[in-house]
UniProtKB/TrEMBL annotation:
This is TetR/AcrR family transcriptional regulator. Residues 3-63 form the HTH tetR-type domain. Keywords: DNA-binding. It holds the Pfam family TetR_N. One of its GO terms (molecular function) is DNA binding. Signal peptide: none annotated. InterPro entries: Homeodomain-like_sf, HTH-type_Tx_Regulator, HTH_TetR, TetR_C_Firmicutes. It comes from Staphylococcus condimenti. SUPFAM superfamilies: Homeodomain-like.
Length: 190
């Protein structure tokens, strides 16, 4: 029952986050939407900010686990395009699965600090992959450029309520990434 109550609180809070900013959400609202009393809320959280932090930490921990698992198994996929496509699939499937949460923190009521943390986590995972699996010179700039573009794509996708499938979005990102790589590999004028 305790775990179920906490889950209800998480789900209801995410619903509220779509409609209200964090400052506007009250514990009374959370309890009413969750169908719980205040003592149940306080059995799990010290205050609403603790709740928001736990929701964010949950998603950060899951995201780290997904990207770490992918990185550790990257060598098992034979072709680089397949590796990159799988990398994008995992990210877009995760965002799609939790699109209400991501829509709330990216679109409805943006939470800048959380978005920045997610960008840093993405950067770190991309850097690991680039260090291990490519010999690209100055790859940190490529990673920064890729993340900037990907953030724009994710933002637009969330804004459109994820109309395209995660698979379609993964393929779009792969095509865009390949185009950038091909451009980088062409001879540039001196």
């Amino acid at each position: 029952m305790k775990k179920n109550a906490k889950r209800k609180i998480f789900v209801s809070t995410i619903d509220l986050m779509e409609e209200y900013s964090i400052d506007e959400i009250t514990i009374k609202m959370i309890c009413a939407y969750s169908g719980i009393n205040r003592s149940t809320f306080y059995a799990h959280f010290t205050d609403k900010y603790d709740l928001f932090e736990q929701i964010q930490e949950y998603h950060k921990a899951r995201y780290i686990k997904l990207t770490t698992t992918l990185y550790q198994n990257f060598g098992k996929v034979r072709y680089n395009k397949q590796k990159l496509l799988q990398f994008f699939r995992i990210q877009f499937k995760y965002i799609y699965r939790y699109q209400r949460f991501f829509h709330a923190v990216f679109i409805s009521h943006p939470q800048k600090d959380f978005v920045i943390e997610m960008v840093h986590l993405t950067y770190d995972s991309y850097e690991k992959v680039m260090d291990e699996y490519t010999d690209m010179e100055h790859h940190m700039y490529f990673v920064q450029y890729l993340i900037g573009g990907q953030l724009g794509v994710v933002f637009s996708w969330l804004k459109r309520r994820c109309k395209e499938s995660p698979e379609e979005m993964s393929r779009i990102m792969l095509r865009n990434t390949i185009k950038m790589r091909e451009l980088e590999e062409t001879d540039l004028p001196n």
